[in-house]
Amino acid sequence: MTKKIVITLFLALIAGSSYSQKMNVAKLDSLFQILKAKDKFMGSIAISQNGTLLYSKSIGMDDIESNKKASNLSKYRVGSISKMFTSALVFMAIEEKKLMLNQTIETFFPTIENANKITVGNLLNHRSGIYNFTSAPEYMTYNTQPKTEKEMVEIIIKGKSIFEPNSKADYSNSNYVLLSYILEKTYKKPFKTILNDKIVKPLGLKNTYNGGKINILNNETNSYSFSEKWIKEPETDMSIPMGAGAVVSNPQDLTFFIEKLFAKAIISESSLKQMTALQDNYGMGIFQYPFYEKKSFGHTGGIDEFRSSLAYFPEDKLAVALTSNGRTYDNNDVLIAALSAYNNKPFTIPTFETIAIKSEDLDPYLGEYSDAGFPMKITITKENTKLFAQATGQAAFPLEPTEKNNFEFKTAGIKLEFKPNEKQVILKQGGGKFTLTKK
């Protein structure tokens, strides 16, 4: 769950670790050492197999202002990974005969559009048609303020329905906020109590709970963006995301949770099959992610500047969790490195070497670029010797030179290759490639 995304489309302290002999531990250590030395990443990782911790590391700061360093005790807001917990709770309620996948939601929310057609299952696999409230422009004007159930339901109603229920899938945080309230009505308890009683306590998770205001004294971390220096981000009030994104945890708890989920220790085999069955690439609170020929199940998360990933590879019984509270090096690149180290695949250790550029060297790149097949215009500007790009309707982001005529914004995986003579720039992101022409 996150709103702030640019052009939408992972050495310090070692927690007690026993390394797998097949892992390239030294190379993975080298990555974290340079990320720490260059101040490119703040966060924690855990890799576990068959319940045994293979690798764990934490770098950066929990709280820069008080100089509190990250450790294996650090806790992070995990954003939409919360949806996996919420989905498991719903399936537990189904197994207890308290809910059904095919029951409609009008008894819970009679004023929601199409409530007599939308089922619990539709909420779980994002086939409800209910508008994603975090996509609304006004979301960032109230996300730090507490909201009641009545207020959140009114906000969700205001977004209306954007397609006929069950006709297709489209990701919506609204679905899982509503599922949180359904669980509360079903058990007549607060969501945080349900989560604690049914998953946290039975599994013995010591660092997982429904979050509130960030408490540094409880080893919770603040999140930071970077613009010349680390800047502390405002906190989303956790009364808003509920089961869509309010869980606080750490990588070791997350890997234990997903291992137990796939061991059928939380929900039954039948429920797990329904949870992991994909329709239009959506499971029920879970997605499938590839790594070479292998497939994993899991979820990613983003709230404020926290980013997280959780994945389980059934073939290897391998669980990987990554949480971060600040980064200028992409979380996905950290995950790829970790999985490559385990699978003895090649991966590159970045050097973060900078290229000296004069202000006048940037002049040929400046201007507005567009293409009929690309949904936004990209405006290139400069401040002294720094180049910036700004997509239509979004904030400007800094570009780092990688070689002559080539720049990147690592955080979002954006690469720009300028062709000044042709007055063009080639934009690459997430496997996409677009050639834009200067106006």
TrEMBL record:
Checking Gene3D superfamilies in the record gives: DD-peptidase/beta-lactamase superfamily
Membrane spanning segments where? none
Q: Which Pfam families match?
A: Beta-lactamase
Please provide the record's keywords in A-Z order.
Signal
Domain of life assignment: Bacteria
Can you give the residue ranges of the Beta-lactamase-related domain? 44-329
What is the residue range of the signal peptide feature?
Answer: 1-20
Name of the protein in its database record: CubicO group peptidase, beta-lactamase class C family
Q: Which organism encodes this protein?
A: Flavobacterium omnivorum
